[in-house]
Amino acid sequence: MGIHTQKRNPAQPLKNDRVLVIEDNPDHWVFIQKAMQSSFMEATPVWASTSAEALEYLNDCLTIGIRTPLLIFLDLYLPDKETGWQLLQQIRSLPAPIGYLPIVLLSASNQVEDITRSYDSGVTSYVVKPIDFKDWLESFRAFKEYWWEVAALPNFR
Amino acid sequence: MGIHTQKRNPAQPLKNDRVLVIEDNPDHWVFIQKAMQSSFMEATPVWASTSAEALEYLNDCLTIGIRTPLLIFLDLYLPDKETGWQLLQQIRSLPAPIGYLPIVLLSASNQVEDITRSYDSGVTSYVVKPIDFKDWLESFRAFKEYWWEVAALPNFR
Question: Cross-referenced SMART domains, in alphabetical order (chains A, B) (predicted)?
Fold first, then answer.
């Protein structure tokens, strides 16, 4: 699979700000896309379904001027958590501004050791994936308010 | 000045979770304290008014078991921004879990170079200080929702 952007309603204006969603589970990508369409319309989600796709996209941002995302959502189990942590460290070692983009890790695990290791590996914040769709909506509303309305993002806003 | 905890209403139950507020401007400390009393009652703010006080407090957390804060608010101009960046890097180099606590930087500056350098120095998110008290309340409500209700914090929750 290549990099897929959200299918948009042609009546909606193009949203130039992007977030990169690194998620190997297509059902969760659909949830995230729907949650963003409802609660976080300020940005267009771009999907990478593997580590390799994500790194290719981020390297293209550095080299051929593809629009750099303002925020990254990273699934920890990609499909296993070692792959997620490895990708996290690879992104952190990329040149500025990619290397210090905020990375919000989404994970099914609420284990203390997973949370600790993720912060130790350079994640910006660790979020346990909600179970109900209503809670996905709430989470994405909070992401939008925090990152789009309160925080100043690196280099772009 | 030593480390000062918020004066609490004795009718309120003790809130065990702490946030460390590193802020040299007493007026801004009062604003932050009031905003937390209104919008972020889940945690008790602890004030450090200099880099030395902040480092002493964080080292005491590591060595003599003072309760580790879950989040740090750091004023960039402490009183100058070089001091703020230096302290940020000093905190990031402390042992776990102190070294990877989320650090929300509060700054009067909205200059791109200050935002960029702050992320490059390891800040978790950069927030331009609001001017109106109403906007401080909104910001602290967003901090509470994001860090207390959505994110899982390192090692403590």
Answer: REC
pLDDT in tens, A41-68: 989 999 999 999 999 999 999 999 899 9
| Cross-chain CB nearest to A155 (options B96, B116, B124) | B116
Backbone torsion region of residue A155, taken as left when φ is above 0, otherwise alpha when ψ lies between -120 and 50, otherwise beta: left
Q: Is the ipTM of this complex over 0.85?
A: no
What domains does chain A contain, in order, with CATH numbers? 4-8+15-143 (3.40.50.2300)
| Cross-chain residue pair A142–B139, CB shorter than 8 Å | no
Record: contact A126-B97, CB cut-off 8 A: no
Question: In this complex, do B126 and A152 lie within 8 Å of one another by their Cβ atoms?
Answer: yes
Q: Is B15 exposed, middle or buried (0-12, 13-18, 19+ CB in 10 A)?
A: middle
Confidence of residue B9 (pLDDT cuts 50, 70, 90): very low
